[in-house]
């Protein structure tokens, strides 16, 4: 291995810069030249590939987003696009590639690898934590902390007015952010796609909270909940309890940004380092994660087929603690 | 003066607790008994009035919200309600009252004062900064800092994807939050109720930004802008430029909460102290603010009639700096 | 079990309130009366034991410190003191006790348990993460985040002046905080008690950094490093390189405070819940931790005899990434 | 005016980047070429002078420190050094220069201006707020917020242990940071260079606090207090009250860094803009500040002769509120 390329793809996540930095520094350590590929697969096709220096990764570990940028790329779905990507890889003599992203990123890598046999390793970079093969994805812990800081602020105003707030957090298909942040803010209820939401049950819980003279109530709603987003659910609650002063806040894109947390920086550093080690050891076509504090390897084919399962103990815990 | 009551009313604002604390501590200093009235005018009518101790205001200066709580109160709009409020004031022998809130709070105080001649002073407690007679309202600086922290996070993700973001901030009638936060985040455009919004102009500005290879663009929209909220404006922009990847985030109620900033804590402390001093000096039926770093007094009648004017220099500045 | 007592002891740690809350709420769920014991063993001896209500644990999950307070207690080292503690437990009819703290706390509990056979369970509450039997202690993750936020600020000024900074973090006997925070801030060197510090080696590393035109250099020093604290080490460096503009910052007690991180809140919630469950299941005289994401139980005798071992992979990682 | 140079000098302060950005953007607006001079006077002498582009100031408004860096420069104290600086200014055809810094920066500019008649304007960039001719210096508000966040954390642990903490903040010659942050954290006492510190008085205040069952006590000490730094004062307190559990924290360099606050970003933007306007209007050899919300101009000779006076009302306020 003399040259390794690295890119970020899909939605950005805090800690991606830390992962890129770890890839680059580990390359230097092993006398490998690291190349940055801009905007993911798009840059691979367009040939936006540049040698990275020590300076490029100085002072980036604490920055949110990704300095290599990210973009969607329809052309990579075509054979022609992938051929161009291959040509660029050959032109720049890249011996292996580290792809930081999510499901879609690995699906692309898997197809590409089958067609052109370029050594790829993937790192789980997404705030959603829904990837199979790792306990934590890069960005998840930061997103959780962003959510709880925001909800702590909302709790201030909820308390001052004895109000009910429905706070919508990210999670189109999975309730990871909602569940852990819900426990962490002491939410009165947590609504997630993985479990069926019954409005009657929710209302009963809220009524019981009102009876217990709770100052305020917070319901965390994953955007992909089966009963709808926070606005829809607020409507349904109001229909049953017209006199509720229910407010809605959709946290939105602030969840993707911000300086990465300690956990995410250490995780990203470990994974970026392990990615280069894996390429050097000929472990390829797989995603690298952390399971039980150990580096673990999951073939792309398996990583994209399965989904991380929600810890159902935490669901029970949320129930008990809101009691 | 032997007994002074204090309450918070209207929307809560960070620093209200610091103001209550300053009222209470200044009372102690002057051998006056401070009484907390819960939930604003509602508590005045319901008789929710309790002697406050040193412990009640220990460790609250850094807390968002208001521990005396706040609520809307329709009964105070009726003569009967106000009579009850008066009876409670007499019953508790309150010699003066400090009301912390906004326009509506002072309007109520003004009517009540005319009818029952109870000495009232008002403190400007609102994140909107739209009150006449003070350079800063309690909570405004904290709200600004909350907004810029949120937009800094959004900038991370906007940069990573070269995206346009429309961020809606509070300000139904006034652009104070939008204007200053817009300058502070380096927004490409700031849309406020005080100036007419032309979508063509906005689009031209964005196109010019695109030509200058700006990584990302942020437009700050006051919720009460004449062209609509952020969602409506995003729609109008997309109609003219269908290929824009424009995203919307509505910051919502996080702007009301959070630990108050240094400026808000000092401001609230000064005003709470000045409120008791004013009552002792027989200065009543007025709002106390800070103008040019000096304590200033504005009769309620004047405070509720006029509005704070936007600094138009800042509008020009925003224009120049987004150049 | 009808009544359970809970206390915090030793140095306070962010998340202790979340743990107390979880104990209390889980008690309610199981129809058990929870009693708060103030200031740890001191309150047990003094009889400062009070029934806790839902309100006592409302709105505390986000607060640093411990509302049950903590204190050192020499009397508990005497048989007479422990007898008094026992009498109070009997007087209040406590059927079991949850002790949140560190090594010293568990040592006391272990002796007491042997003497009086009162069911105790311990929860690991310390920012130092040095307890055997758990991957994370309550407060560790928050402390890490506090450190990295502080060092990020120091990096700003270090970069502006091309300076070397030695930052001392907590860790009298262990380098857990130093090691992870050092990786997370991209420190040029990390000095910990577990490994021998050679000043010559450190100087060589710094010189090589200077040659690589690094803008600034950060060295993280655990307070208990074998070569001394940050001030001593700075002196030794300056003796070898008199022209270095080396600055020292000792982060100190800010590391103990602050709103707990998402991880600490969830961890504390899980452990508080598990503590009551353990008492109900007659699992006692042990510390409850989390190992590989699973609740784990370690007898006090073992917990206090062993120490958590530092992950040496992280040491190597730190070395490689500062390359 | 066709070309304007800008540099930062002296200790760095949050908001310096925002000021540079405003200078650069205002130059563009006026068709002027902005040149960045690196490391202050040092770069002026060494000829480290480069044309700045829009990209250089993109995404810097939120960054602490100064991307133009800062350094001490002894050569500028010599005639020879200043001659070299002049030659470089002529070589790069700079028509005017914006110097961002403090007292020392303006003293240098004043001498240089007298000798070589180069148009200079100064902007007040220092966290200390001790400059005559402006209500706020760039960086002061951010430093205050950094201090209060740190002390809020310390208050957590102080409360948990009923402890006394002495917290040392920056201010070698002036108590601005100590006074306002002291009020903002509700300090029990504030010790500053401007007023004489009597240890007996301090001890009396602390004893009275202890009698009033205060949970914890915080004393803010400006580093340049006449009675010594926080460690010295702690010693003196302990000599009089040997049984006090007094702890010391020196906040140190974290006070210089961090993302600038909203106030500092707006202030820096206004001042950077006004600096270019002043040069264009031939107003030179002066410092630009903000007094009573209006841009104000103070000749260097006056700015360096006088010192900003402490608001003594705030001293009284601190006294009353700690009552």
UniProtKB/TrEMBL annotation, chains A, B, C, D:
Activity control, per UniProt: Allosterically activated by ADP and other diphosphonucleosides, and allosterically inhibited by phosphoenolpyruvate.
Enzymatic class: transferase
UniProt: substrate binding residues: 126-128, 163, 170-172, 223, 247, 253-256
Gene3D superfamilies for the chain: 3.40.50.450, Phosphofructokinase domain
One GO CC term, this protein: 6-phosphofructokinase complex
Residues at the catalytic site: 128
The protein's required cofactors: Mg(2+)
Reactions mediated catalytically: beta-D-fructose 6-phosphate + ATP = beta-D-fructose 1,6-bisphosphate + ADP + H(+)
Single Gene Ontology MF annotation: AMP binding
Gene Ontology BP annotations: canonical glycolysis; fructose 1,6-bisphosphate metabolic process; fructose 6-phosphate metabolic process
Matching Pfam families: PFK (PF00365)
Domain Phosphofructokinase intervals: 3-279
Residues that hold ADP according to the record: 21-25, 155, 186-188, 214-216
The UniProt record lists the keyword Phosphoprotein: no
Subcellular location: Cytoplasm
Keyword Ribonucleoprotein: no
Chain residues that bind Mg(2+): 103
Keywords on record: Allosteric enzyme, ATP-binding, Cytoplasm, Glycolysis, Kinase, Magnesium, Metal-binding, Nucleotide-binding, Transferase
Family listed: Belongs to the phosphofructokinase type A (PFKA) family. ATP-dependent PFK group I subfamily. Prokaryotic clade 'B1' sub-subfamily.
Role played: Catalyzes the phosphorylation of D-fructose 6-phosphate to fructose 1,6-bisphosphate by ATP, the first committing step of glycolysis.
Protein name per Swiss-Prot or TrEMBL: ATP-dependent 6-phosphofructokinase
Species name: Vicingus serpentipes
Organismal lineage: Bacteria, Pseudomonadati, Bacteroidota, Flavobacteriia, Flavobacteriales
């Amino acid at each position: 291995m003399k040259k390794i390329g690295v890119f970020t793809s899909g939605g950005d996540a805090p800690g991606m810069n830390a992962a890129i930095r770890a890839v680059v520094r580990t390359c230097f350590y092993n006398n490998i030249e690291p190349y940055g590929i801009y905007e993911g697969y798009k840059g691979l096709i367009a040939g936006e590939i540049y040698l990275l220096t020590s300076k490029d990764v100085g002072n980036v570990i604490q920055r949110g987003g990704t300095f290599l940028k990210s973009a969607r790329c329809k052309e990579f779905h075509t054979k022609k696009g992938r051929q161009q990507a291959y040509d660029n890889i050959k032109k720049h003599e890249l011996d292996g590639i580290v792809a930081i992203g999510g499901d879609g990123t690995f699906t692309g890598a898997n197809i590409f690898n089958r067609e052109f046999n370029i050594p790829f390793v993937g790192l789980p970079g997404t705030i959603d934590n829904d990837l199979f093969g790792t306990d934590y994805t890069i960005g998840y812990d930061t997103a959780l902390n962003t959510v709880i800081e925001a909800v702590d602020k909302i709790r201030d105003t909820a308390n001052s007015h004895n109000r009910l707030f429905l706070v919508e957090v990210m999670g189109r298909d999975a309730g990871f952010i909602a569940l852990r942040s819900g426990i962490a803010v002491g939410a009165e209820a947590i609504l997630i796609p993985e479990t069926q939401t019954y409005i009657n049950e929710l209302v009963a819980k809220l009524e019981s909270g009102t009876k217990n003279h709770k100052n305020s109530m917070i319901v965390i709603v994953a955007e992909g909940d089966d009963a709808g987003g926070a606005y829809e659910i607020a409507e349904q609650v109001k229909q049953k309890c017209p006199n509720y002063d229910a407010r809605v806040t959709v946290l939105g894109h602030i969840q993707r940004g911000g300086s990465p947390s300690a956990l995410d920086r250490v995780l990203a550093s470990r994974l970026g380092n392990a990615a280069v080690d894996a390429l050097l050891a000929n472990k390829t076509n797989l995603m690298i994660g952390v399971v039980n504090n150990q580096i673990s390897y999951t073939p792309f084919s398996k990583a994209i087929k399965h989904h991380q399962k929600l810890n159902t103990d935490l669901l029970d815990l949320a129930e008990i603690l809101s009691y």
